[in-house]
Design a protein that fits this description.
heterodimer, A: 79 residues, alpha+beta, Ubiquitin-like (UB roll), two-stranded antiparallel ribbon, 2 helices, 22% helix, B: 143 residues, Aldehyde Oxidoreductase, domain 3, 3 helices, globular, EC 2.8.1.12 (chain B), MoaE_sf (chain B), Mopterin_biosynth_MoaE (chain B)
């Protein structure tokens, strides 16, 4: 499964994206659990992170399919 | 129409696009890079965005503004990339029959997009350090 990071999360993880060895379909919550295991510094950010696929914000109960990329969006500061 | 991208924002073009004989007022809000923040000297701001959702969010703010206020048009443009002090990062143009509606709608549009568009500022300071600014939690975050 592929995960992309934006904003400060790129610094927290040290990369724009990671690929996880998980079998789809998999719940977004499970992907976040794996990520916090691999990158413990992510944990404190997750309560304020939105999850998106394409142009849709997703619930953590939603399933990610094989051809989808999970995008993690921290609090925004545009304008 | 792209609402967000690296191109310089052309206010004159936006005024031409929204020109209407039914309008008695237009309001332009422009956001620019300020040279100070919390007592620190800012030399530039890098704007980044998750563009698929940012496009949708900005289009939704335009549509909501048109639905909620008595205005003729509302257009929003947001810029990405490294902007120097004084450069335009965001513009909202609203046209209405009357100024009260135009002011209120313009304020609503900029206040709302700052909460809903996935865009991030990374400030660069005169000492060379850089930091992502703390911001607004997106709707649906943490759920």
């Amino acid at each position: 499964m592929q995960v992309e990071f934006f904003g400060v999360l790129k610094e927290v993880v040290g990369s724009n994206q990671v690929t996880l060895d998980m079998s789809p379909p998999v719940a977004i919550a499970e992907i976040l659990d794996r990520l916090t295991s691999d990158y413990p510094a992510l944990k404190s950010h997750l309560p304020r992170v939105a999850c998106a696929v394409g142009d849709e914000v997703k619930s953590r109960q939603d399933l990610l399919q094989a051809d989808e990329v999970l995008v993690l969006l921290p609090p925004v500061s545009g304008g | 129409m792209d609402h967000i991208g690296a191109d310089v924002i052309d206010i004159e073009q936006l005024l031409a696009e929204t020109d209407s004989p039914d309008a008695g007022a237009f309001v332009v809000f422009g956001g620019t890079v300020r040279r100070h923040h919390d007592g620190k000297s800012v030399s530039a701001i890098e704007y980044s965005a998750y563009e698929p959702l940012a496009e949708k969010a900005l289009a939704e703010v335009e549509a909501e503004t048109l639905a909620q206020f008595d205005v003729i048009s509302c257009v929003i443009r947001h810029r990405t990339g490294r902007l120097q002090v004084g450069e335009l990062s965001v513009v909202v143009v609203v046209r209405a029959a009357h100024r009260g509606d135009a002011f209120a709608a313009g304020r609503y549009a900029i206040d709302t997009l700052k909460k809903t568009a996935p865009v991030w500022k990374r400030e660069r300071y005169s000492d060379g350090s850089e930091v992502y600014l703390q911001g607004e939690t997106l709707p649906g975050a943490g759920e």
